[in-house]
Structure formats: structure tokens, C-alpha cells
Amino acid sequence: MPLGKRAKSTAPSAPAGIDALPDSVLEHILGFLPSPEAVRTCVVARRWRHLWRHATGLRVSCLVGGGAGDGPPSPKRIRDFVDRLLLLRGHAPLDTFELRFCTFDEDGDGDDGSCLSRWVQQAVECKVRTLRLENIWVDGFELEDRPLVSQHLTRLELEGLDLKNCFCDFSGCPLLEHLVIESCEFWDAERVSSESLKHLSMTSCIFSKDSSTVIRAPSLVSLRLDGHLYRAPVLEVMPSLQEAFVRVIHENLESGYCDDYSGDCDDEDCYSCYGAVDGNYKCMLLEGLSEADNLTLISESKAQAEDFVTQ
């Protein structure tokens, strides 16, 4: 080497931009992307090859199509993708699992429910804290009737599902505090119960024609019951209730079933009007709301509600 000249430095330059962030931050960021996009980041660089497997959120939208060209995938492709996604990430901790779907049933064999239950169980094994299941067809997608058991779940959001007895027993989720239920059916659910639940929202749900669903949530702080069809749910006493919103939308049904809380029904056995007997303890809707510090009660016809929406 000629005198007076120095060798060029071969030390690698410090990472800049997003590459300067630690893996844990990148995994958190990937958790906000739709899962297919998060998986595609594996081709960005060698460092990114496996980051998606540890993303703190899974957000999957299963919109079914014919599977040709760039259109929506077929049910089989959806099932294969989600199955492989969950398999490859193993038991990496999961903060959020959101699933929007209509069907996964390729052959019409009615295997949708067991498929969904399997994915939910895998998410629970990953210690998921927030779980959202949204059926975009809103036609009463039937879940397998088995209890949900999780020591980590704090928030559960359900839309367009047919909920059964065992699933609605949340005693196996001791940390569950937020429950959001929209456009779900409770034909065969006698009770919704949780000792830990603090915030409950039920919107546009369909209840049984023959008996009322009893809601037992003694730790509840806030309640939103916005519209229902057929017999009103019956609330057990909620001593910690601070805020409640109840809106009743009356429909001119020809079925002969009372669908409000009026107490004007001639049938003394009507749970909607006169409450339900639970052992030796009589639980009525208004008794359950009596502890609320702030209470909003709204009664309107279906025509009024539709006019409000269109304005």
C-alpha cells in the first residue's frame, strides 16, 4: 500500500429508517396490517423473513369468490391460508385476532362451525386478548356449542352468529371485561353469564320466542341494549352498574309474541313483561337497571327508527 494512504473502512453502516427499529416494534406494526400483507413482508429482506410469524395481531378477511384471476379466493384457498398461517406461527403470543368471513364450506358439508371453532381454539392457545368474529352475511352462522375457555381474553366481539348455551357461559374467561354482540341469535341460549364482565353491548339481536335469555353479570359497569326481536332478555341485579342505555323498537308482529318491556301483556307468564323466576329469586329487566347512576330508556316504533337512519 502506498505511503500516506489509508485503507477504506469495511465496517457496516448503521441501519436507518424502519430498519433501525427493534424486532418487537416491527412485529407490533405488522399486527395492524391485514394478515396476507403482513406475510408478504417476508420478501423485503433476510431480517424480515420470519417477523410476520410473531406479529401481535392477525386480521383475516375471508371474502369468498370463484378463485379465478385476481378475484376473491375460493373457500378452500381461504381455509388453507388460515390453517397454514396459524400452523407456521405456532404458539407465538397474540394480542388481537380479527376474522371477517361468510363461509369456508367448499363442499356444502356443514363443516363451517368446526373450522371456525378450531381457529378460535388455536388463537386461545396463543393467549389472544382481543377476539373479533364477524359474519358479514349476518345470517346466523352457527358456532359449535362449547364453552370458551381462556385465561387471557379481555375483549370479545361477535357479529352475525347463532349463539348457544355453553358458549354463552363465560366463566372460563376470568379476565373478560368487554363483550360486544351485534346481530346475533339467541334461540337456544338460556343464559349469558360472566362474573368478570364490566362492559356489555348488545345491538339488534334476536332472542327466543318462548323464553327470555337471562343475563347474569354482577360486575357490570356499563350496559347497552339497543333493539331486539321477540322476548326481551332479563337482567339479574347489577350492583356496580353506572350507566345503561336501553332502546326498544316495537314491531307490528303477527306472531302473538310480546316484544317489549311494557308490562301490558295479558299473559302473566310472559318473561318480557313480568320477569323470570330464577330459583327463589325473581329477576326483572327494570330491577336489573335500578342500580344505574345514569339510565337512558328509549321506546320507538320500527318506522321511527328507519326514518332516523335515513335522515
Automatic annotation (TrEMBL):
Q: Which Gene3D superfamilies match?
A: 1.20.1280.50, Ribonuclease Inhibitor
Q: Which SUPFAM superfamilies match?
A: F-box domain, RNI-like
Alphabetical list of InterPro entries matching this protein? F-box-like_dom_sf (IPR036047), F-box_AtFBL13-like (IPR053781), F-box_dom (IPR001810), F-box_SCFL_complex_component (IPR053197), LRR_dom_sf (IPR032675)
Q: Where are the transmembrane segments?
A: none
Q: Which residues form the F-box domain?
A: 15-51
Q: Which Pfam families match?
A: F-box
PANTHER family given in the database record: F-BOX DOMAIN-CONTAINING PROTEIN (PTHR34223:SF107), OS11G0201299 PROTEIN (PTHR34223)
What's the protein here called? Answer: F-box domain-containing protein
Q: What is the lineage of its organism?
A: Eukaryota, Viridiplantae, Streptophyta, Embryophyta, Tracheophyta
